[in-house]
Amino acid sequence: MTDQSKNQPRNQPKGQAEQPPTRILLADDHALVRRGVRLILDGESDLVVVAEADDGAEAVAQARALRPDLAILDIAMPRLTGLQAARELSRVLPDLRILILTMYDNEQYFFEALSAGASGYVLKSVADRDLVEACRATMRGEPFLYPGAVSALVRNYLDRVREGRALPPRAITEREEEILKLVAEGHTSQDIADLLVISPKTVERHRANLLQKLGMKDRLELTRYAIRVGLIEP
């Protein structure tokens, strides 16, 4: 074996030797998870992690600064969830490909991920099996769906056709969801205003709308609701 062949990456897909590797932004608020995912990706010659983030807002900032090819986003992160970050990135960087990495085998999250602009949904429990192929499929312009997601898509479509109904509208707007998450995390109105570049009065108006729409009376009830719908972790 020559010295050159010794240094050749072990997992090089056919036909991709001359192509530059896919530049990846990895966002997860758990350092151990990021380390494990990075180990998976580092073993592939066509994939390279160029940046990491530990919350959704940092992921958006890193993506805007570095312009990676692919963002892998955890759903449950501080400041902005992976879904919120995906919506923002789809708006400001429409060419960026997005994968959602999550522990939740949940149909609601799956459909929201697709709606937010993600090309795939990978479960952390099988990331060692599925993540690399999900990255490659996404960069080929193909959706990546785990088996349970395929079943959910088919079942949802058949139910809608049979019942003649559309998907239910969102209970709250995307902006209200952003503010709900930050309120539940304990941020003040001024903190939220600074983060979202709006006025504190606008924050208060959105919070009042949230309380009215959701039939709640205070921050505690908003926080419980945010936990129940997966915006923050308990």
UniProtKB/TrEMBL annotation:
<dbReference type="GO" id="GO:0000160">
    <property type="term" value="P:phosphorelay signal transduction system"/>
</dbReference>
<dbReference type="InterPro" id="IPR039420">
    <property type="entry name" value="WalR-like"/>
</dbReference>
<feature type="domain" description="Response regulatory">
    <location>
        <begin position="23"/>
        <end position="139"/>
    </location>
</feature>
<feature type="compositionally biased region" description="Polar residues">
    <location>
        <begin position="1"/>
        <end position="14"/>
    </location>
</feature>
<dbReference type="InterPro" id="IPR001789">
    <property type="entry name" value="Sig_transdc_resp-reg_receiver"/>
</dbReference>
<dbReference type="InterPro" id="IPR000792">
    <property type="entry name" value="Tscrpt_reg_LuxR_C"/>
</dbReference>
<dbReference type="InterPro" id="IPR011006">
    <property type="entry name" value="CheY-like_superfamily"/>
</dbReference>
<feature type="region of interest" description="Disordered">
    <location>
        <begin position="1"/>
        <end position="22"/>
    </location>
</feature>
<feature type="domain" description="HTH luxR-type">
    <location>
        <begin position="165"/>
        <end position="230"/>
    </location>
</feature>
<keyword id="KW-0238">DNA-binding</keyword>
<dbReference type="InterPro" id="IPR058245">
    <property type="entry name" value="NreC/VraR/RcsB-like_REC"/>
</dbReference>
<protein>
    <submittedName>
        <fullName>Regulator</fullName>
    </submittedName>
</protein>
<dbReference type="Pfam" id="PF00072">
    <property type="entry name" value="Response_reg"/>
</dbReference>
<dbReference type="InterPro" id="IPR016032">
    <property type="entry name" value="Sig_transdc_resp-reg_C-effctor"/>
</dbReference>
<feature type="modified residue" description="4-aspartylphosphate">
    <location>
        <position position="74"/>
    </location>
</feature>
<dbReference type="Pfam" id="PF00196">
    <property type="entry name" value="GerE"/>
</dbReference>
<dbReference type="GO" id="GO:0006355">
    <property type="term" value="P:regulation of DNA-templated transcription"/>
</dbReference>
<keyword id="KW-0804">Transcription</keyword>
<dbReference type="GO" id="GO:0003677">
    <property type="term" value="F:DNA binding"/>
</dbReference>
<keyword id="KW-0805">Transcription regulation</keyword>
<keyword id="KW-0597">Phosphoprotein</keyword>
